Structures are given as structure tokens and as C-alpha cells.
Amino acid sequence: MKLTVVGLGPGAGRDLTGRAYDAIQAADLVVGYTAYIDLIREAFPDKEMQSTGMKKEVDRCRMAVEAAVNGKNVAVVCSGDSGVYGMAGLIYEVAQEYPPIDIEVVPGITAACGGAAVLGAPLTHDFAVISLSDLLTPWEKIEKRLAAAAEADFVICLYNPRSHSRRDYLQRACDILLAHKSADTVCGYVQNIGREGERAVTCTLKALRDNEEVDMFTTVFVGNSQTSLIGGKMVTPRGYLQREN
Fold it and tell me: In what order do the strands lie in the sheet with 199-204?
């Protein structure tokens, strides 16, 4: 009776780790969100797979835990990292209601790391990751987190920056950040990280505020006061060279 929560990485292809591959290969049943199951089905054609749609996270986790309780080796797959906005926490919560099972969390490359590598090196110093989705977190709390991170001069990585129902959330977030950061702050965003159509853009915070290209498949990076462009790449210094001067 084992359940493994597996991070697929941002593209579920080249960035799938060896440990994640082995966990899926060892599973009797693979459970996940429909879109993520579709990403790996071709790579694991002989695996039994079950999926649920969006907003069915609790049902999905119950399905997986119940299968594990009944003796199957189950892998629950998540995009990116299984513990960063993934299913790992929910699996532990749901599993409390059932007989004990062995739970293992297999990490993956989260969008912050995957997107940062495409842009250059924006996360070399302290940074904060904030989701702009208010489905599970009140917008008032998101506003406080944005303001605090901006005032503390963190590099900020934004997940879920915009959707069809949240068209102005990135603009509203940028307005909060502009109260504490320069309009010329170096920013960047990456669309479709690790997938077909991957695209990276650098810009200023002011330009980001008025951007209409960012969508739900985009990860946004807002630099700190020291972030700059070096050879067209977004770079935040750690301070090694400054220490020598």
C-alpha cells in the first residue's frame, strides 16, 4: 500500500526527472488531472490511468488514496513540483481519513525554476512565489503578500497571473508592486515552459502592467532593485562580485 506524489516538471517531457520516471514506471495506477495524464500517456502506454477534470482535486486524491488502501501502488502526478501548488499537501490531508498508507513525495522542477532558466538567472537571490489565483485564497490576502514582498525588495515570481475570469489581476498586482518598486524594474515572463510554443520576454514593470499577452500558461518574474539585463538575459546578482569591491 504505497502512494507516491510525483512532480512532472513544467513540460512533462525533457524536465521529467529520473526519480519521477521510476516512480511512474513502478506504479500499478497513475492518477492525475486530465491535461497532465494526457501529457504522459504516450510515454507510459501500458499504465492504467485515471483522471478527473479541473476543480476535482479532492475527488482525485480520494480516488488515489482508496486505491492505495486497497493494495495498489499508486502514483499521483502533478505539473511542476508536487509540493508547490501541487497535490502533496492535499494527499496528506485526505489520507488522515483512511487506514495508514506509505506516502512518498517525489519533487519536480517547478515553473519558477523552469522559467528562470529560460530567462537567465533572475532567482539567484531571495525571492517570493505568489499565486494570483483567488479561487482558494482571498484577494485581500494576496494583496498583502504582494505589498510585503515588494516592500522587502524580493524578486517575485507570479503563478496564475491571468485567466479568462481574472483578466485584470496582473494589472492590479502590478499597481501594488509599483507602490514599492521602480517602474523601470526589470521583469520577464515565460509562456508554455518546457512545451511547444515556449516563449520568453523581458520588459519593465510599467510595460508588464499594460501587457495583454500574459495568460494562464505564463509564469511572471519581477526583479528586485539590483536585477538587470546582461546580454538580454534577466540576472539578479547574489553579491559575490560586490563583496570583492
Answer: 127-131, 155-159, 218-222, 186-191, 199-204
